[in-house]
Specification:
alpha+beta; Phosphorylase Kinase, domain 1; Transferase(Phosphotransferase), domain 1; 6-stranded antiparallel β-sheet; two-stranded antiparallel ribbon; 10 strands
């Protein structure tokens, strides 16, 4: 889920997912224990403006398997939100890459909400993985190359992610990065042009510190927007610091620096 500009100096290292999990777990969730298709929801693992992500297990006890189930918050979700959720499901159905979390299934809840069943990724943020394993420059570059390969694959399939950031990439214990969350991704067509509904700042459908200048300005988005975000990610991964000076103070200072 896209984040607002944060005033925390080390915010780029922190997973938006983990920050939101703490808030989500403080209140009971009526869906815990619910069975969707072949899977029973067991715990909340993340959430944001578009919906919640649950850990789930096979309900039929045929074999043990954990999955991630992404579900819209409420039946009152706007038509635009439901359309974007369904678009994410269709996009993921076209992507089969070892560094992109796989779509396994999908359907509708009893109250008519669409849900996605995804590969459950046990992992940490790229910077955390590098720190935990003491990776040198060559190893960091090899890890970053895998992330780039996943984005390149998506681009070959005419998909722009549009929200590349550390919180949307997890690295497994085996050192394999997995690209997550195509919730605001865009499928390129010959008619693809300006899309103000996605780039509007007041809708929080982008993460400013990883956004490209054209995203900030609300201009046409291309694969170059993802490449720009990869440049920011690569800088952080290799140097341990953001390329931007104005991460604190008034958000306009950061936006001006990006542009």
């Amino acid at each position: 889920m896209a984040d607002a500009v944060t005033g925390q100096v080390d915010g780029w290292q922190r997973s938006a997912l983990n920050q939101e999990v703490c808030a989500e777990r403080t209140t009971p969730d009526r869906r815990i224990g619910e069975v969707l298709g072949r899977y029973r929801l067991t715990a909340i693992v993340g959430g944001g403006g578009m919906g919640r992500v649950y850990r789930a297990v096979r309900a039929d006890a045929q074999f043990e398997k954990s999955v991630a189930v992404k579900l819209i918050h409420s039946p009152l979700a706007s038509d635009d939100l439901q359309a974007r959720f369904k678009a994410e499901r269709q996009i993921l159905a076209t992507l089969e890459h070892p560094n992109i979390a796989r779509l396994l299934d999908g359907g509708l809840t009893d109250d008519g909400l669409p849900y996605l069943v995804m590969e459950f990724v046990e992992g940490v943020l790229p910077a955390d993985y590098c720190c935990q394993h003491g990776l040198g420059m060559r190893a960091k570059l090899a890890l970053f190359q895998q992330i780039c390969a996943a984005v390149h694959y998506a681009h070959q399939h005419m998909v722009i992610h549009r929200d590349l950031k550390p919180a949307n990439i997890l690295v497994t214990a085996g050192g394999e990065p997995k690209l997550l969350d195509f919730g605001i991704a865009k499928v390129l067509t010959p008619q693809t042009t300006y899309d103000p509904a996605i780039t509007r700042m007041d809708n929080r459908l982008l993460t400013p510190r990883y956004a490209s200048p054209e995203q900030i300005r609300g201009e046409a988005i291309t694969t170059g927007s993802d490449v720009f975000a990869l440049g920011v990610l690569g800088h952080e991964l290799l140097t341990g610091a953001s390329p931007y000076r104005y991460l604190t103070g008034h958000p306009l200072a950061l936006l001006n620096e990006i542009c």
